[in-house]
Amino acid sequence: MTDSKMNLTPEEQAILDGKQGSVLAKAMKSVVLYGEAFGAGKLVDIVGDQHMVTSFGANTIKPYFSMMDELIHAGLKTRHPFTVDPRPIEYEAVNVNPLQKLVNKLVFGKQADYEKQLKALGLRNGNAFTCTCYLPEVGNTPKKGAMLAWSESSAVVFANSVLGARTNRNSSGIDILCAILGKAPFFGFLTDEGRQATWKIEIKTSKRPNAQLLGSAIGLKVMEAVPYITGLDRFLGKELTPEVEAFLKDMGAATASNGAVGLYHVENVTPEAKESGDRLLAKGYRTYAIDDAELERVRASYPVLWSNLNAVPRRAFIGCPHLNHYQLQNWIERISGVLKEHGLTRTKMPVALSTAPDIADLFRNDPAIRAKLTAMNISITTICPLMYMNNPLCAREPIATNSNKLRTYSTARFFLDDEIVELMCTGSVRQGEKTA
């Protein structure tokens, strides 16, 4: 019998002892050792579909592909179908020059083979590539209290915070092993204690703050801790409308990328905060007040990595994480309106709006909408902008974005929403128009 510090069920112990094959035993041993490292006393059953972070066939992760092959050759599949992060490339929607295309093929040369592996192990369908798997159009929306083992940081923080599901921010590889076993180690955000807040965030801004900037400020301050946010309901209301969910999605992604937040509570808005209120605050919590000046201070701290600070962007990316349906429609209307104000019909640079494949299809399959967007120099894409920027040739370009996640992990330059629309339409941002 293989020893473990965990309290395993007879079925789990039998798997660990190799009674269901050596490969499944290796998977169980990996998950058990992972759980033990974080003090987990047991495993719990995963409830609902999994979501994987690794969506790209990069040539540099050969050991990962070998593990996938070993699982497949053993005849294993995930207990539930799963979704996965966005594809790294989509040439039709995001045109690149021939040299950039060549480099993409070199960087992501295993993409086709890797997607075959994903399908063999239980990928939901060909439209399952998105970081916002929880959107209703995609359908991988966990229920409140559901135990999961997700790994994509922006999806983890949304599932925990806005949906009330329970998942730790797991690593790539561990996510697929947990999905095959249908088990997750019980620690961290899966426990009641792990969901207590150790920071109280007081929002004291004069108007609704920019979601990306607010999330950045929170993440930089609390890092991996759980924040309990007060005062934000003055601007959001108390209902989880598509607009509010979009705000929380973008705010959460910024907390996770600029810090390592995997769960936040918003007073009178998110489900656990509605139920428990400030009882979610742990003893000895710390307080951080955010006003207009604090947001400006955080914004001013961002480095600009363009070689020419006055360059007209080569491209603008909106949608990291992927836009929901409300946001996509709103951005199209917003850009169109500003173009009309300036007497223009076309943006100064290509604009890529990234969204989930199921949402993209609703727009791209309509010939009239597609023609309108093409005429405006706008494309709807399903790629991950971060993967686009992983191409070293693309990373040299002056790329504009309103995403704090993309800014953090790439050379893209951050602009607030009003600024980036002005930039798209005129090629510059007028001074004095900066707004949070």
**Rough shape?**
globular
Assembly form of the protein: single chain
Strand order of the largest sheet: 11-10-9-12-13
Number of domains: 3
CATH class of the largest domain: Alpha Beta
Strand content: 5-15%
Helix content: 40-55%
Main beta sheet, described?
Answer: 5 strands, parallel
Protein name: DUF521 domain-containing protein
Keywords: Iron, Lyase
GO molecular function, one term: lyase activity
InterPro entries: PMDh-L-like_dom
Relevant terms:
alpha/beta; Aconitase, domain 3; five-stranded parallel sheet; four-stranded parallel sheet; globular
Q: Would you give an account of this structure?
A:
Helix content is 42%, strand content 13%. Residues 431-436 have low confidence and may be disordered. Helix 3 packs parallel to helix 5 (111-121) and helix 13 packs across helix 19. It starts with 9 loop residues before the first helix and ends in a 10-residue tail after the last helix. It is built from 19 helices and 13 strands. The longest helix is centred in the middle third of the chain and has 17 residues, at 242-258. It has three domains: 10-190, Aconitase, domain 3 (2-Layer Sandwich); 195-300, no CATH class; 315-426. It has helices spanning 10-16, 22-37, 62-73, 98-107, 111-121, 153-163, 174-181, 211-222, 233-236, 242-258, 271-276, 292-300, 325-341, 357-364, 367-376, 385-389, 392-395, 404-409, 417-426; strands at residues 43-45, 50-52, 82-84, 183-185, 197-203, 227-230, 265-266, 281-290, 315-323, 351-355, 378-381, 399-401, 413-414. It has 436 residues and is α/β, with parallel strands linked by helices. The strands form four sheets. The chain has a five-stranded parallel sheet with strand order 11-10-9-12-13. Strands 7-6-5-8 form a four-stranded parallel sheet.
